[in-house]
Amino acid sequence: MRKVNSILWGVVLVAVGVVFALNALDVVDINIFFDGWWTLFIIIPCTVGLITEREKTGNLIGLLIGVFLLLCCQDVLDFSMLWKLAIPAVIIIIGIKCIFGGVFGGKSDKIMAEMKADGTGVANGFAAFSGQTLNFDNEVFNGAELNAVFGGVKCDLRGAIIEKDCVINASAVFGGVDIFLPANVNVKVRSNSIFGGVSDKKHRNSPQNSVTVYVNGSGMFGGVEIQ
Fold first, then answer.
1. 186-223 in b/e burial notation, b at 16+ Cβ within 10 A?
2. b vs e for 71-91, b when ≥16 Cβ sit within 10 Å of the residue's Cβ?
3. What pLDDT is recorded for position 180?
4. Are the beta carbons of 164 and 118 closer than 8 angstroms?
5. Rounded mean pLDDT of 30-38?
6. Which residues, including other chains, have CB under 8 Å from residue 189's CB and lie 6 or more apart?
């Protein structure tokens, strides 16, 4: 995915460079600095993010805002409509995401329900205006509930014994949760975030791994990072 991101940004930069060059040679006369040109600094990154990033809600909201501002600058829409439509649009996007999350994210919920029904011990980590580090070296890990509110939680599983599929529910509100996984497990992420996100760019899955760690991440002006 990192290669795709690099390629897309490369295409954008080449296109901009070509336009500048053609303008300089008087081959074409394309006005780069049209009314609302600055909105491209919102639209282009959000568009690239929709294609390359796992967490798409923030990018989709940003793209809609960028397009709306561009249309306002072009006198197609009125700026006064922004605040009238912003909240309904955000609510609709989050609602759609919750629907798809409920439809396609059932396995992790099933695993967590079975663990609680069996009385399997689930670790808990919570930090409010502070920090907490959980280390599971040489311990059997079955799952965890991690919550950070104006603080940070670090969960280190690199030395843990993970014998079967398990679930980590991680929530960050104006804070951050860092999860360190061993190389011999796969990770599957489900994210529900508002102006936050879940990143697993540093972890690599492998077909040889027999165990999967399901991470249900949610962030509100915060983030969950998997390493």
1. bbbbbbbbbebbbbbeebeeeeeeeebbbbbbbbbebb
2. bbbeeebeeeeeeeeeeebbe
3. 92
4. no
5. 78
6. 54, 198, 200, 214, 215, 217, 226
- Within its chain, how far is the Cα of 146 from the centroid? 17
pTM comes to 0.57
As a whole number, mean pLDDT of residues 114-140 equals 79
DSSP helix/strand/coil, 151: coil
Type of residue found at 73: C
Please state which of the ranges 17-26, 66-75, 117-126, 201-210 shows the lowest mean pLDDT: 117-126
pLDDT for res 218: 78
- Return the percent helix, strand and coil in the chain, to nearest 5: 40, 30, 30
Q: Closest by alpha carbon to 215, among 175, 170, 155?
A: 170
CB under 8 Å to 113, separation ≥6 — which residues? none
Residue 110 one-letter amino acid: K
Give the DSSP H/E element, type plus range, for residue 3.
helix 2-24
Q: Which of 88-92, 182-186, 218-222 has the lowest mean pLDDT?
A: 88-92
> Do the Cβ atoms of 74 and 35 come closer than 8 Å?
yes
Show the 3-state SS of 101-112: HHHHCHHHHHHH
Structure tokens belonging to residue 223: 């983030």
Q: Which of 26, 59, 57, 49 is nearest to 190 (CA)?
A: 57
Q: Enter the DSSP assignment of 149.
A: E
Take residue 115 and report the two structure tokens written for it. Answer: 């663990």
